[in-house]
């Protein structure tokens, strides 16, 4: 737990408390808190579920913050485990969970957590419900309760792969029509427009609670030998060992390292509209189409942030708060198979912004420089027509 560069607490033995209509909270053992940075507050509050809370002010940081930390010295019996623990108002703090992978790598992830990469695989590995119909399960409540377009693309790739067995999805073009929460399953319908011996085309429609959320066309191929081959070279950027760890997105089981730290929410940063990010997953799914689907899921993270970089006063910190942002279209082509447990370089460039839109393109290379996929993304960046709060939204649900 950090306030700027000041470490407030650190522990391997935290509790995670989930409460309805509240963000998840980490409770640190009291002995792990640097109490010399705090002074007692006169404030107390009563929670009907946990008991009486006592507070402390953070006085060692600039500016000082009142009532930053609280404890339940005598919690109610139902939550007796909270005794001897302290929690923080983390809105202005940086909270990082460090995961140790089987290979010994320490991977930072921001808190609150979305979940683990294994949960992402469970969501995108859609299950048959009827002929050419599939269901993607619900994830449940989460801090940012909006399904990313990249997840819809991944689900479409899996559904078509399970429909057109014996062929590999080589491209997908999807539009994202309406936002969808994580709290309900999605229904996926595959309409095979043509099933050929070599090439096939399918239309996919993704709905939730009876409302169409995404639709698009996917192409599948039986494969063929090279007649000719020419491949764009990987850009000359530093490798993952020299790129900066990126803790954003709140997913364990996936490691991200960004070249020059270019994915920066700070609106004061100005740079070229380009983000190069190395990505790998902890665990390898069995099916090759799940590797392709996971690759696709990560393509929609970068374009909006890249488009903001040349413009002072703009940054991802404003997204969903005072700017309406979202991915509205993805076109992706798969060139070669990949192993997502090996490092993949996502090289992204936003080449146009205006009229409330950002257009970007990207390439995905493996660590050896082999081009695995390419994609084009269209996104929106607009002012809100109305205050999100007046529409019943906040940064967790607003687009």
From TrEMBL:
Residues 4-90 form the DUF427 domain. Residues 146-212 form the Acyl-CoA thioesterase-like N-terminal HotDog domain. InterPro entries: ACOT8-like_C (IPR049450), Acyl-CoA_hotdog (IPR042171), DUF427 (IPR007361), DUF427_sf (IPR038694), HotDog_dom_sf (IPR029069), TesB_ACOT8-like_N (IPR049449). It comes from the Bacteria. It holds the Pfam family 4HBT_3. Residues 253-376 form the Acyl-CoA thioesterase-like C-terminal domain. SUPFAM superfamilies: Thioesterase/thiol ester dehydrase-isomerase. PANTHER family: CONSERVED PROTEIN, DUF427 DOMAIN PROTEIN (AFU_ORTHOLOGUE AFUA_3G02220). This is Acyl-CoA thioesterase. The lineage of its organism: Bacteria, Bacillati, Actinomycetota, Actinomycetes, Mycobacteriales.
């Amino acid at each position: 737990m950090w306030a700027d560069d000041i470490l407030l607490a650190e522990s391997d033995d935290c509790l995670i408390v989930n409460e309805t209509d509240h963000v998840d909270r980490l409770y640190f053992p009291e002995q792990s808190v640097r109490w010399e940075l705090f002074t007692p507050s006169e404030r107390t509050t009563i929670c009907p579920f946990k008991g009486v809370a006592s507070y402390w002010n953070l006085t060692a940081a600039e500016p000082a913050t009142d009532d930053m930390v609280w404890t339940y010295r005598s919690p109610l019996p139902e939550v007796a485990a909270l005794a001897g623990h302290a929690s923080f108002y983390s809105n202005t703090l940086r909270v990082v969970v460090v995961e140790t992978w089987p290979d010994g790598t320490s991977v930072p992830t921001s808190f609150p957590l979305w979940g683990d990469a294994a949960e992402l695989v469970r969501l995108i590995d859609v299950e048959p419900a009827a002929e050419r119909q599939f269901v993607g399960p619900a994830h449940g409540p989460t801090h940012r309760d909006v399904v990313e377009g990249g997840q819809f693309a991944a689900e479409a790739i899996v559904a078509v792969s399970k429909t057109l067995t014996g062929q590999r999805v080589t491209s997908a073009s999807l539009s994202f029509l309406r936002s969808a929460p994580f709290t309900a399953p999605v229904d996926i319908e595959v309409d095979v427009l043509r099933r050929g011996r070599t090439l096939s085309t399918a239309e996919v429609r993704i709905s939730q609670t009876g409302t169409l959320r995404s639709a698009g066309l996917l192409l599948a191929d039986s494969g063929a030998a090279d007649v000719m081959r020419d491949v764009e070279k990987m850009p000359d950027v530093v490798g993952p060992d020299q790129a900066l760890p990126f803790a954003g997105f709140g997913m364990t089981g996936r490691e991200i390292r960004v070249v020059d730290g270019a994915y920066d929410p700070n609106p004061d940063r100005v740079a070229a509209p380009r983000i190069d990010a190395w990505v790998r997953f902890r665990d390898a799914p069995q099916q090759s189409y799940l590797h392709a689907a996971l690759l696709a899921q990560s393509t929609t993270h970068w374009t909006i942030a890249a488009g903001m970089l040349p413009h002072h006063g703009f940054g991802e910190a404003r997204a969903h708060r005072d700017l309406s942002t979202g991915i509205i279209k993805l076109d992706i082509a798969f060139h070669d198979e990949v192993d997502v447990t090996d490092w993949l370089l996502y090289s992204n460039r936003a080449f146009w912004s205006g009229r409330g839109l950002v257009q970007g393109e990207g390439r995905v290379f493996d660590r050896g420089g082999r081009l695995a996929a390419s994609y084009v993304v269209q996104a929106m960046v607009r002012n809100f027509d109305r205050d999100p709060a007046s529409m019943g939204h906040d940064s967790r649900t607003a687009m």
